[in-house]
Amino acid sequence: MKRAGSKGVLESSSSSSKKTTRRQKKPPTSSLEELELPNSAMNKIQEVHDIARDVFSAATPGFVPSPLAEANLTKLLDTLKLEDFGLDASMPYFRADPQGHPKVTYVHFGDDSLNFSFGVFCLPQSAVIPLHDHLGMTVFSKILHGSMHIKSYDWVKTPNGKNRICREIDGAHFAKVRTNTIYDDSSKTTVLYPESGGNLHCFTAETACAVLDVMGPPYSSVEGRDCSYYGVCPSPRGVSRRITDELSDWLRKERCTFNMNAVLVKPSTMT
User: Fold this and answer.
1) 77 — phi, psi (to 5°)?
2) Cα dihedral sign, 9-137-209-45
3) pLDDT tens digits for 144-167?
4) What pLDDT shows up at residue 28?
5) Considering the entire predicted model, what is its pTM?
6) Cis before 27 (ω within 30)
7) Which pLDDT band holds residue 23 (cuts at 50, 70, 90)?
8) Alpha helices, DSSP H only, in the chain?
9) Which residues sit opposite 151 in a β-bridge?
10) Comparing C-alpha atoms, which of 84, 64, 212, 55 is closest to residue 141?
């Protein structure tokens, strides 16, 4: 079940809890688990919400925060740990399901009607969030627990600097590798932008791990900014091997088969 602010198909969590129904894209409706958190966690969520609301107050597609606004949010995010959000590594979100599948769980905070969205992706060991884009978005990411391998790309621009893909051949697009390394909960907050900083990325859990994402403006299928998934493909026929090296790849869109569990935290004080 896809919705604004999420990266994939969301399914209700198997944990027993009060459930609520929200509008989604695929399928049209589904239920999400609601999670009750202690007041200390709710206060921390509110603190992140309030700063992010200011950062993304004028967010439209292509929006990039000012250096001061970015610094204010990253300063807070750099201090955060998993426990600050009332979560811990003993929760079922960090274990494979009974069939042995390491399924991702997204714990969503806030209101989708705002100019931003934020939440925590919980990954059991070996879980993968496939390569996907963030069209017109700025995204702050902070590892809260464990470690993950992150590989990211940016589309190669034309020589005149316009934000256009350099070459498209047989549906394949040319992209430059920006990140290909392991991050953990001691790593600083990373920021990707609409045209730089690794706007396309994939996560692979080295250990059970969690990452907080604060993004804006959220995904919107209505505005034509849905989340798209990509796979690495061979160099198109006729392209010189010198064009593609270990720091670049050809990427092609793929049909989304990724799905994840969803947990909703929606404090009534968030406005």
Assistant:
1) -60, -35
2) negative
3) 999 999 999 999 876 655 545 455
4) 27
5) 0.84
6) yes
7) very low
8) 39-55, 67-77
9) 180, 202
10) 212
